[in-house]
Write a structure and sequence with these properties.
The protein is mainly α. It contains 13 helices and two strands. It has one domain. The protein is globular and about 55 Å long. The chain binds zinc ion (2 copies). One zinc ion (ZN) binds next to helix 12.
Length: 267
Amino acid sequence: MLMLHLGCFAVFYTGVSTPAIIVLVVMYVGRGLGITGGYHRLLAHRSFKTSRVMQFLFALAGCMAMEGGPLWWVSHHRSHHRDTETDKDIHSPKTQGFWKSHMGWMMTNEAFMESGANTRDLYRFAELKFLQRYYVWIVLVQIVVLYALGAGLDALNPAWGTSGAQLVIWGFFICTVLLWHATFMVNSVCHTWGSREYETDDSSTNNFFVGLVAFGEGWHNNHHQFPLSARHGLRWWQIDLTWLLLRAMNSVGLVSDLRLPKELRSP
Ligand SMILES: [Zn+2]
Ligand SMILES: [Zn+2]
């Protein structure tokens, strides 16, 4: 994690270009939706249905975000919902402190001792076990692809001012660090600062900023109230990019059975 953060400073050596910014945005959105739509709403909560191929693609995009393999991630997340803010909640700012809830918990031995007992339903998918096992290789392959893309674009048109190293820095290092903090804030910030619409048994909050940068996951008080809902931003102004994607995918038949809180269901 430290290396990834320090690596971002190489941007002063590689510089920036239009292709680098485009790659950053595409990678941030694609990998981000892999975490929010794939790891979280599909795998952890089963809040909508989809084909095995789509499930694999969602999980693959999640793997690329370098937040652990899907089975490990889901196991921790389900534990968070079961043991919210108790001593068993490994990333609660209430019991562990803000820093540990944000990212320090992943530097503890406990973080890698999940038994997987709460993800048995996902073990029947060989492709998810494959992603869990070869997760590190997926992370590494994207670095090679980004490098090859940058070198290829540079050879095609040097005026674009890009390079292999530049696309690795923007598309992998900077993108990963930004997305990490955006999603880690759901654990830290969204149990500390924000508004509470529902009197849940925990101190989860709705936070507009996190809602924006983490594609709807910042409406975390709503989520603790309605954990099975595919939609987290429940009011029109609660921007939830993941929900917009799922609704669009639903309209073309790529996903179905989007679960919603009772009060939002049409009669
Ligand atoms: Zn929470
Ligand atoms: Zn959740």
